Amino acid sequence: MQMKTKNIATIFAILAATLYAINIPVSKMLLQFVQPTMMAAFLYLGAGAGLFLWGSFTEEKGEKLTKAELPYIVGMIVLDIAAPILLMLGLQYSDSASASLLNNFEIVATSLIAFFLFREKLSKQLLLAIVLVTGASVILSFDGFCWFHFNHGSVLVLGAACCWGLENNCTRMLSNRSSVQVTTIKGIFSGLGSLIVALIAGERLPSIHWVLIVMALGFVAYGLSINFYIKAQKDLGAAKTSAYYSVAPFLGVLFGVLLLGERPRIHFYVGLVIMTIATVLMVKDSISLQHTHEHCHSHIHEHTHGSLSHSHEHSHIHSHAHIHGEDEAVHGHTHNDIEEHDHTHIQ
């Protein structure tokens, strides 16, 4: 029964990655008919409205948001206005395959912001992965081997990744709240904010059928993807779910080739190899997270003082660190608190 539950959770994790992966190539196709800021607006409105309806039919555990969290909510909304707009603008000037890989830079931004603002520790493996992702991002940001000519679209995509990296650190402060409520607020208010920006910028409203198509994409690629990710995480844990979800950028590349007929140039494949190595390192770092399990042992000591005999119960807590691989565990004793990091971040 437990194996069946984990198999279903694995399917949910891969499904979450697949649904998110279709976002960039399909968005690039739709940009022929919908202007970029309008696209960003209706993607998020679709995610917010869809999750609101989803939440009305499902019960989800989680604490409600409070006024004390208002700064993080506002930060999340503002950054979720900027990020998709930058991504859609970037997609106008870059191919979807490169944009899919460049999305991995979000992990770099998230990790570095967490390090500098929240003093989270970075493992050597993750640091190496960050260096590799940064190097690959630089390569992907140039037009082929014209090393003195930046692809402006790639720079905009990297800007979106940085915004989402900061947004992830705002959202992490809301991690114990209802995910449906957080996603609904994020979608509705960020979508409305993007819509206001689009109207101020003079973009025209698309016809209703394009609005519905874009909203449907937002619900699937953002809303449902988040929902399936959370379902997977409940049974697999953060580390293994993030490992499965890490295939999303590579699926995005595949969809770009299949749906758009893209044929990337040599520099893309150089970046792809480096990005693959970096992803493997991040997955290994995520899977080998240490978990502290406490075991409490009680025993009774009997004491005799002259004719008076009494007993005391003593409890000893031993902490064991377990480093889990796929099929085996390495055990050691530790007295340190060990923090788990999830390197996968969802928009």
| Uncertain ranges | 290-341
Inertia-based shape? globular
Rg, Å, rounded? 23 Å
Structural class: alpha+beta
Number of helices: 13
Overall average pLDDT: 80
Portion of residues in beta strands equals 5-15%
Instruction: Output the strand order for the largest sheet.
Output: 3-4-5
Helices and strands, in order, run as HHHHHHHEEHHHHHHEEE
> For the terminal residues, how far apart are their CA atoms?
32 Å
Main beta-sheet strand count, sense and barrel state: 3 strands, antiparallel
Share in helix: 55-70%
Query: How many extended strands?
Result: 5
How many distinct domains?
1
Short description:
With 347 residues, this protein is an alpha+beta fold.
Describe this structure in words.
- The protein is of the alpha+beta class.
- The protein has one domain (2-290).
- The protein has helices at 2-21, 23-30, 36-57, 70-91, 96-102, 105-118, 124-140, 152-171, 179-200, 208-236, 238-245, 248-260, 266-287; strands at 142-143, 146-150, 290-305, 308-324, 329-333.
- A 3-stranded antiparallel sheet has the order 3-4-5, with no helix packed on it.
- The protein is globular.
- The two termini are 32 Å apart.
- The model is unreliable at 290-341 (pLDDT under 50).
Record the SSE blueprint.
Layout: H1 2-21, H2 23-30, H3 36-57, H4 70-91, H5 96-102, H6 105-118, H7 124-140, E1 142-143, E2 146-150, H8 152-171, H9 179-200, H10 208-236, H11 238-245, H12 248-260, H13 266-287, E3 290-305, E4 308-324, E5 329-333
Antiparallel strand pairs: 1-2, 3-4, 4-5
